[in-house]
Amino acid sequence: MKLSDYEEMVTGRAASLFEEDIANNYNAINDNLKNARVAIIGAAGSIGSAVVKTILEFNPKGLALVDLSENNLVEVVRDIRSCADLRVPEDFSTLPIGFGSQEFMRYFEESPTFDYVLNFCAIKHVRSEKDIYCLIRMLDTNVLFLYNFLENLPYKIKNLFSVSSDKAANPANLMGASKMVMEEVLRYHSAQHHYSTARFANVAFSDGSLPFGFINRLKKQQAISAPYDVKRYFISHKEASQLCLLSCILGDNGDIFFPKLAQGLNEETFADIARNFLKQNGLEPFECGSEEEAKSKAPELIKKKQWPCYFFKTDTSGEKDFEEFYTVNDIINYDRFQKVGIIQTLQSELNKESLLNFISFAKSLKNKKNINKDHIVDEFCKVVPSLRHIETGKNLDQKM
What is the tens place of the pLDDT at every residue in 343-353? Predict the structure, then answer.
């Protein structure tokens, strides 16, 4: 099956949710992009590479792709140059360098001015907050690199887009809280640098996601496991790229775009996705009572076109049983687009002191001794009071 078939299975949509909004605003997007130089950071990831293709549909004047993953960046270039309906501009470059590195900063200081910069570089997994070493990397990637970039960018751009997450709304984990701090970093610099962002749902079958893992389990003839009590929103890669494009090109300063998806109507559990995924591949789910049972029965079941599955109740740290895009305190505009809502952040007050104290703490972490995760949680709560982190002592690395 093709990726688009799997995406439609999960979202229930053959056409993009944002098709009408793109069509209604096509001329405005085209007018802004046709003479623009665009830089995409994290261009080789699932969302970044989808955005590359979407932006190329509007023939920008120049395009720079930045991603530390050299191999994935090479594949992005081969892909777009192999597409008959995409034109790669003459002013085109790729840079296998890391966000926040010295060479990264030097590139933006010495290269011609960019009109738009889109940042998709992120530590996005809740499993990556299990210890202080991973948390230091998360804070670097999601917060400090962006803060330093905005502090040192020598010119103004038309707009900086830096992707956020639905997990930033009433966060239950430190990953979501780090994205909320990222949003506050953008707000702090909003007088100098026009910005917008987007909180969106899980991108169906994106790299590293649980549904993406289902594809690999089939390839490797391995059992599937998934929680049965966690509901998530899903959008396709194309929808994710279009939402980011709408936000970047049409967003006002401080806007956070999100998809208009209804709680209880547009959500799926991972267990249901697994069942439907197997049936789409002509396989019958066989539910087991444990990981060990599922693994041990795999050889005999798979021969009969049955697939061993273990569905479990979530007990890992940082998980919510549902997701949300905004809070009751947010100021929302529902009227500008058909399928996009907008949180207007600049109309609410920013606590600059707590943000700068947190930035100072995050910068000091590499040299702090005798610090543990509880200390970091405490500091997060000072800058993100809505954080409701519950430590269970378990993480997703302990599951299949």
Answer: 999 888 899 99
**Cα separation, 123 vs 128, whole angstroms:** 7
In 2-31, which positions are buried (b, 16+ CB within 10 angstroms) versus exposed (e)?
A: eeeebbbbbbeeeebbbeebbeebeeebee
**pLDDT tens string 179-213:** 999 999 999 999 999 999 999 878 999 988 999 99
C-alpha–C-alpha distance, residues 355 and 188, integer Å: 9
Amino acid residing at 80:
I
User: Cα-flanking dihedrals φ and ψ of residue 267, to 5°?
Assistant: -105, 155
Sheet of 306-312, strand order: 224-227, 306-312, 284-288
> What is the spatial distance between Cα 98 and Cα 25, in angstroms, rounded to a whole number?
34
Amino acid at 256: I
User: Other CB atoms closer than 10 Å to residue 315's CB: what's the count?
Assistant: 13
The residues, ordered by sequence, that sit 6+ positions from 273 with a Cβ below 8 Å of its Cβ are 9, 10, 211, 214, 226
Does the domain at 19-204+235-263+320-400 match CATH 3.30.70.100? Answer given as no
DSSP, residue by residue, 133-151: HHHHHHHIIIIIHHHHHHH
The residue with tokens 């040192």 is 152
Token reading at 374? 């509880």
Contact 67, 45 (CB under 8 A): yes
Q: What pairs with residue 116 in β-bridges?
A: 38, 159
Residues β-bridged to residue 37: 62
Chain segment 153-181, per-residue pLDDT in tens: 989 999 999 999 999 999 999 999 999 99
Cα–Cα distance list, 309 to 271, 284, 303 (Å) = 9, 10, 15
- Alpha-carbon distance of 261 to 263, in angstroms, equals 7
The H-assigned helical ranges of the chain are 3-11, 19-24, 26-33, 46-56, 70-82, 102-110, 132-139, 145-152, 174-188, 210-219, 237-250, 270-280, 291-303, 352-364, 373-383
pLDDT in tens, 233-267: 899 999 999 999 999 999 999 999 999 987 655 78
Point out which residues pair with 202 in neighbouring strands: 234
Q: Is the distance from CB of 129 to CB of 135 less than 8 angstroms?
A: yes
Q: What is the pLDDT of residue 265?
A: 56
Ranges of each domain in the chain: 19-204+235-263+320-400
Q: Which whole number is the average pLDDT over 259-284?
A: 88
Q: What are the beta bridge partners of residue 62? A: 37, 91
